[in-house]
Specification:
408 residues; alpha/beta; Aspartate Aminotransferase, domain 1; Aspartate Aminotransferase, domain 2; 2 domains; eight-stranded mixed sheet; three-stranded antiparallel sheet; 41% helix
C-alpha cells in the first residue's frame, strides 16, 4: 500500500462522530444540524428538468474536456461575473466533477516531488494552506509527496493570513498555494491588496495559486459581490500565469449531488491538468454537463437563493451575538462563532449542545492544525446555516437557551 495514506488525518466529521459517541440527546428535541456545509435549499426546477431531459446522455462516455457548449456557458458566466472578456473557453476553462475532486487532483498535477529519498525526506516541496482550512488541501499535498505548511488566520486581520510571516526558506520550497475566498470556515474575502501581495510572491518564487471560490455566489450585498482571483488579476493588469480559480454549482445552485464545477485560468496549467484527468478518469457525466449549462446560464435562481441566506443571517446573527462572540461574515453560509465566553472549549461546547438540545455544530479545532504555537480554530465553532429559515431560527433559539443555562 502507498505509505503516504498513513499520513492522512481523520476527516472532521469522523472526529465529530467520535466526540458524540455514546451521547443520547435529551428527549423532546428534533435534531438540527449546523455541522455539514451541505445546501438544503431545493434544487431549482430548471436544473431538475434539464437533468431529466438529458438522460439520453447516459448512453455515451463523457468527454474529459467537457462539451464546447458547457465551456462556453462557463466562460460567458465568468465574463459577466468577473469582467473576464478575454477568457478563452477553449484553453482557459475546464469543467470538472466538483471543486473537491479538482482541488485534490490539481496538486497531483503541479507538484514535482522528484528527488532522492534522503532529500525528499529532508526538504520536500511545500504546499501552503490557510489555517483553519478545507482538509482536502492537506490530503492533496501529502499524497503528492509534499509537506503542508499552515499559515494561521488572524481575527485582528478579519481572519486573513499573514503571509509576510512565512520564512524565506519556506517560500523557496513552495510549489502550490491554496487560498479560499470566501473562506471556509470564516467567510472572509481576500481584498485586492491581499491579491497584490500573493501575486508578487508567486512572481518571485514561481509557485501556483489555486483559488478555491466555491462560496463566491453566497453573499449579502447584490451591489458588491466578492472579488475573485482572476478578477483581481484583471484589475491589476496581470495575466493568469500560475493562477487558477476553482468554482462549483453545489452552493450556487443547490446541486451538491451533481458534483459539477470548473477550473479556469492559466492555459498551460490546464493543458497539463487535462492530461492528468484523462488518465484519472474523472469526467463529468454528460447528463450533468447538459444540466450545468442550464444552471450557469440562469441568475434568477441564484439571486433567490442568496435572498434566503440574507434572511437567515439577518435573523440568526443578532440572536447568537447575545451569547457568543460572532459577527456577520463577508460571504459564504457559515457563522464562525467564538465560544470562549461560555467557559467551554469548542469540543465541550459542541458535545454538550448536542446532548442537551440535539443541535450539531462543528468544533473549530477540527478544521485547523496546531501551527506556530497555536491551533487557530480552538475556541470557535462553525455554524452552517444551510437549512430552511424556520429550522435555522429554532436552532439559534436553542443555542441561546443553552448558553444562558451555562450562566444560571
Amino acid at each position: 500500500m502507498n505509505p503516504l495514506l498513513q499520513t492522512l488525518q481523520p476527516y472532521p466529521f469522523e472526529k465529530l462522530r467520535a466526540l458524540f459517541k455514546g451521547i443520547e440527546p435529551r428527549a423532546g428535541f428534533t435534531p438540527i444540524s449546523f455541522g455539514i456545509g451541505e445546501p438544503k435549499h431545493p434544487t431549482p426546477e430548471l436544473i431538475r428538468d434539464a437533468v431529466v431531459n438529458s438522460l439520453d446522455g447516459l448512453a455515451a462516455y463523457p468527454p474529459t474536456l467537457g462539451s464546447e457548449p458547457l465551456r462556453e456557458a462557463i466562460a460567458a458566466w465568468a465574463r459577466a461575473r468577473y469582467g473576464l472578456e478575454s477568457l478563452d473557453a477553449a484553453t482557459e476553462v475546464l469543467p470538472v466533477s466538483g471543486s473537491r475532486e479538482a482541488l485534490f487532483a490539481l496538486a497531483q498535477t503541479v507538484i514535482d516531488s522528484r528527488s532522492t529519498p534522503e532529500l525528499r525526506e529532508a526538504e520536500p516541496p511545500i504546499v501552503l494552506c490557510p489555517n483553519p482550512f478545507y482538509q482536502i488541501y492537506e490530503g492533496a499535498a501529502l499524497l503528492a509527496g509534499a509537506q503542508p505548511y499552515f499559515v494561521n488566520s488572524d481575527p485582528a486581520r478579519n481572519f486573513a493570513c499573514d503571509y509576510s510571516a512565512v520564512p524565506a526558506d519556506i517560500w523557496a520550497r513552495t510549489q502550490l498555494l491554496y487560498v479560499c475566498s470566501p473562506g471556509n470556515p470564516t467567510g472572509a474575502v481576500l481584498t485586492l491588496d491581499n491579491w497584490r501581495e500573493l501575486f508578487a510572491l508567486s512572481d518571485e518564487h514561481g509557485f501556483v495559486i489555486a483559488s478555491d471560490e466555491c462560496y463566491s455566489e453566497i453573499y449579502f450585498d447584490e451591489a458588491h459581490p466578492p472579488l475573485g482571483g482572476l478578477e483581481a488579476a484583471r484589475v491589476l493588469n496581470r495575466g493568469f500565469e500560475r493562477l487558477v480559480m476553482l468554482s462549483s454549482l453545489s452552493k450556487r445552485s443547490n446541486v451538491p449531488g451533481m458534483r459539477s464545477g470548473f477550473v479556469a485560468g492559466d492555459a498551460a496549467i490546464l493543458k497539463q491538468f487535462l492530461l492528468y484527468r484523462t488518465y484519472h478518469g474523472a469526467a463529468l457525466s454528460t447528463v450533468f454537463q447538459r444540466a450545468s449549462i442550464a444552471a450557469w446560464r440562469d441568475e434568477t435562481h441564484v439571486r433567490d437563493n442568496r435572498a434566503k441566506y440574507v434572511s437567515k443571517f439577518n435573523t440568526v446573527t443578532p440572536m447568537l451575538a447575545e451569547v457568543l462572540d460572532v459577527r456577520f461574515p463577508d460571504a459564504a453560509f457559515y457563522l464562525w462563532a467564538n465560544v470562549s465566553r461560555t467557559g467551554l472549549t469548542d469540543t465541550q461546547f459542541a458535545a454538550r449542545l448536542y446532548a442537551d438540545y440535539n443541535v450539531t455544530v462543528l468544533p473549530g479545532s477540527y478544521l485547523a492544525r496546531p501551527a506556530h504555537g497555536t491551533n487557530p480554530g480552538e475556541g470557535f465553532v462553525r455554524i452552517a446555516l444551510v437549512a430552511g429559515v424556520e429550522e435555522c431560527v429554532e436552532g439559534a433559539r436553542r443555542i441561546v437557551e443553552f448558553c444562558r443555562t451555562l450562566k444560571s
